[in-house]
Amino acid sequence: MNEQVTVSDKALGYLNNTHLWITFIAVMGFLGTALMLLIGLAMLAGGSFMPANSKMPAMFFTAIGVFYLIMSIFLCLIPGILLMRYGSAISSIPAAGQAGLESAMSRQKSFWKYIGFYVIAMVVFEVFFFIVEFKLGILR
Amino acid sequence: MNQPLVISENVQASLKATRPWIKFMAIMWTVSIAFLLIFGLAKLAGLITNTSETGELALFSRIMGAFYVAIGLAYVMPALYLFRYAKAIAGMQGTSVVASFEDALKQQKSYWKYYGIFLIVVIVVGMLVGGGVMFVSLYMAAHHQH
What is the pLDDT of residue A137? Predict the structure, then answer.
């Protein structure tokens, strides 16, 4: 591109409005992380206090607890951090100028790439889980 | 900010690299909508029922069906915004770079705004339902004691 194309005020306005919402969603992501960590730790504690002759195996609580701990990182924490980084890049545009805009666009790409990989991983995981359940005869 | 901001090659390259992921996510939203609507409508019509589900349980199953349909319909707009966002990025060529860039950022803003409002609604409804369940449980426990 030889000719430089200037970013309009309208486009900058849209970016500023986006900043408010992604900051809010990132904060919700961090709160979600804290909540999931608490639930995960409570499940782990519940599993360790389970009597040996209980109908519900302690292993079940431990597995759910570990699942919550892992999901708190991949579902809430990492997207929250990526969104926050995108938001801070947008807010840096008035001071950083062109570098801020380029950083914002690059960071939003990182966010969507992560979400794409996450969704693919979840779909693969669910298909695998479905097959395992089917093989074990739980669905019968 | 002294220098005017430009839609540089770096900016365009980042957006173009984002496009496949945006499109993929829009397709995933659409697949979710299809599943939710099919499953929800089937539950609502009583096509998916357990033989043990009678009376209140059958009613609860239909309420869940309506819930799935509502969630499916709520997912339509995010999918639409992402499709429009991907389309606007694809249109960033030649003389339409400024207009397409503006449109891309507009669709992206709309997506996040909708997502934020949806999140607020989910939190408020979750709190109301959670509070309601707690209130009914306490009431029933107190009622049971007398």
Answer: 75
In a domain, A124, yes or no: no
Cβ A75 vs Cβ A32: under 8 Å: yes
User: Would you say residue A73 lies in a domain?
Assistant: yes
Q: Which residue of A has its CA nearest to B12?
A: A105
CB contact residues (below 8 A), chain B span 35-94, against chain A: none
* Domain count across chain A: 1
pLDDT value of position A48: 79
Whole-number Å distance between alpha carbons of B62 and B39: 11
Of the listed ranges A20-34, B39-53, B57-71, the one predicted with least confidence: B39-53
A137 assigned to some structural domain: no
Q: CB A115 to CB B21 under 8 A?
A: yes
Asked if residue A125 is part of any domain, the answer here is no
Which pTM value belongs to this model?
0.88
